[in-house]
Amino acid sequence: MDEPTIGLDVVSQKRVREFLRIYNSENRIVTLLTSHYMQDIAELCDRVMIIDHGKIFFDGPLDTIIDRFSGDKVISLTFTSESKRDFTEFGEVVSQTPVSVQLKVPRAHVTETARRLLEACDISDISVQEMPIEDVIRSLFGERRTRQQAMPAAI
Burial letters for 91-113: b for 16+ Cβ neighbours within 10 Å, e otherwise? Predict the structure, then answer.
């Protein structure tokens, strides 16, 4: 199937994905799905293959892509009152409103950064999420292309 939910509204997308999941399970078949739409992939695929310039770059579970290629996580905070604080000392500010902030933080520093944030701010809610898979893949291929362009051509 080539991008089976493209152009559909969110309700129809959900119905198509549910149909495919049930049909595959009941009939014990394998479906090959090609898509750039990560929601379809995340909900339907146990195994993912990423092909770059005609070569298999990755073959395995979707979660492994995040574990292997994402060096960051996102810490989301909601404050009890408005905060005008500069959060760049804690990580890269992804988004900020007067009552919330999202920070991109290196995986290895998430626990320590969360502790520091809890001590420094009046926080009503905190959560830690993986980087969106789209961002991980975009970053991954951006880095690969930069390295390939920097390499001298073989003569």
Answer: beebebeeeebbbebeeeebeeb
Let me know whether 75 and 129 are in one domain: yes
Question: 133-150 vs 62-69: helix axis angle to the nearest 10?
Answer: 60
Residue with tokens 């951006």: 142
Domains identified in the chain, total number: 2
CA 135 to chain centre: 5
pLDDT along the chain (155 residues), means of 10: 92 94 91 86 88 88 86 94 91 95 96 95 94 84 62 49
Are residue 57 and residue 29 in the same domain, yes or no? yes
Q: What is the pTM of this model?
A: 0.67
Give the phi and the psi of residue 151 in degrees, each rounded to 5. -75, 135
